[in-house]
Amino acid sequence: MPDFVFAYHGGTIPESPEEGEKAMAAWGKWFEDMGEAVVNGGNPVGKSMTVTAGGVADNGGANPISGYTIVRADTAEAACAMAKGCPMVADGSGSVEVAPIIEM
Asked: Which domain holds residue 73?
């Protein structure tokens, strides 16, 4: 069964401890619902830098990611169905890119 990376874009930073607890509960429930499909829960990430032949740009990139998760699913469609449950997708504050991890 293939693995897929979920690359998160967007989202919001909770403005209070209560909002933070609510957000963590939503993420915890989503991960619980996905169960053993979660291979690596991942983490939020900080501001990215773009490295090219011309140098390094410390600008967050064209579409910066805000975190990642690795899941296992039978198909890309099944992985996308899981991604639809992401709290950022559900509340409209962000999106999830789903990409297969290609074993080499």
From this structure: 3-100
